[in-house]
Amino acid sequence: MSLIPKRGTVYVVDDDEAVRDSVQWLLEGQDFRVRCFESAEVFLARYDPREVACLIVDIRMDGMSGLELQDRLLERKSPLPIAFITGHGDVPLAVDTMKKGAMDFIQKPFKEDQLVPLVERMLEQARALFTEHQQAASRDALLAKLTGREAQVLERIVAGRLNKQIADDLGISIKTVEAHRANIMEKLGASTVADLLKIALGQNAPKA
């Protein structure tokens, strides 16, 4: 049995110990796993992108600000859902963070009935993004099995080209195209062209 609460992990980054303690107390009381960091730099050094989690971070901190941390995570293409803790004067800044993809912001002093629903929404998104990431990684691993020529054939299958057209495109025989198609299907574990499209296109595959 896992000792980690089932509701997910919440990272809290704030240079104010009292705020960290308050957020941790509120969220652990609702069965969330909470990990607190006193600075953005320490958080970045320890952040594990493989974990399903969300981030609550203060906009203004000594050293790297919450805004700069958001920019660093965007540069890393991190899917981590973010919400900001703000003072009253920081609301215009917080609005800017949302334009960059932050999910929300909460003003100090905040209450449990503000914080908990926000964290639940963030973790729901985190789980969805994690699933997408895992599916994309699995797809990439399958596609990496293909030779260069097989990848060229697959690209044309996805584009709707017929075997004869693919043969003409690549200057090979139709029998060679058929052999490549069979190898592609076997390597990707696809039994139909529809399966092949789902693997090759992922989220962009046509719906049945």
Overview in brief:
With 208 residues, this protein is of the alpha/beta class. 54% of the residues lie in helices and 12% in strands. The longest helix is centred in the middle third of the chain and has 32 residues.
Question: What does this entry look like structurally?
Answer:
Helix content is 54%, strand content 12%. Strand 3, helix 3 and strand 4 form a beta-alpha-beta unit. The radius of gyration is 23 Å and the shape is elongated. It contains nine helices and five strands, in the order E-H-E-H-E-H-E-H-E-H-H-H-H-H. It is α/β, with parallel strands linked by helices and 208 residues long. A five-stranded parallel beta sheet has the order 2-1-3-4-5, with helices on both faces.
Write down the overall geometry.
elongated
Radius of gyration over alpha carbons? 23 Å
How would you classify the helix and strand content by structural class? Answer: alpha/beta
Distance N to C terminus: 39 Å
